[in-house]
Amino acid sequence: MSEAITVVLVHGAFAESASWSGVIPRLTEAGVPVIATPNPLRSVTTDAENVRRAVEGVEGPVLLVGHSYGGAVITEAAVENPGVVGLVYVAAFAPDHGENALELTGKFPGSTLGETVRAYPLGDGTNDLYVDRDLFPNQFAADVAPEEAAVQARTQRPIRDFALGEGQPAETPAWKTLPSWFVFGDADKNIPVEGLRFMAERAGGLTITEVPGASHSIMVSQPDAVVAVITEALAHLAR
Known about the structure:
Residues 7-228 form the AB hydrolase-1 domain. By secondary structure, the protein is an alpha/beta fold. The protein has helices spanning 23-29, 44-56, 69-77, 101-105, 136-140, 146-155, 161-165, 193-203, 218-221, 223-238; strands spanning 6-10, 34-37, 62-67, 84-90, 117-121, 127-131, 159-160, 180-185, 207-211.
């Protein structure tokens, strides 16, 4: 592939685009075009449309990188999207048709996320969810410096509960047709590591990288590990 591949980063629930602030400078220093697109966290369907529009605004091929719930979003956004050439899942969901984030979180034991989530009603029968700000550092970012984790807690974007319970729309999710790479930590308290392994192996990830001791906020605590996987994906796609 002769054209430069642009990396489009998609954040997950209880996070925002600045969660990629350790990844972006490393990629730009290596000469890789990269953008982080906002993720509204309203529903898989509408969030995926948002990512599709971001991809349409990029000249040339795109490597989609999703964190956590952002994995479900890129899985949908890449379906029949000729601009997307590969997928990288960062501690992320890779759902099959009809599966949702809540179902996949509970498929294997170990998640303690539910105990830390708080809700407030939106007036339409759904709720916005956020992680208790005092509990966030230990739950979400245990290997991140406390002061940085505290900032993450206070800048998190809430997710609409409908989004976490919405079944994956496409009958053929994008990981069945595009090459994929996976990176996650073995100390993730949000998505059990067995679940992350299950999704990565089912998708036939070209590489599956486990980072010892890394939390759900692996892109914050271990940006070098995440960039290494993205770089590996770019090298593969450039052949």
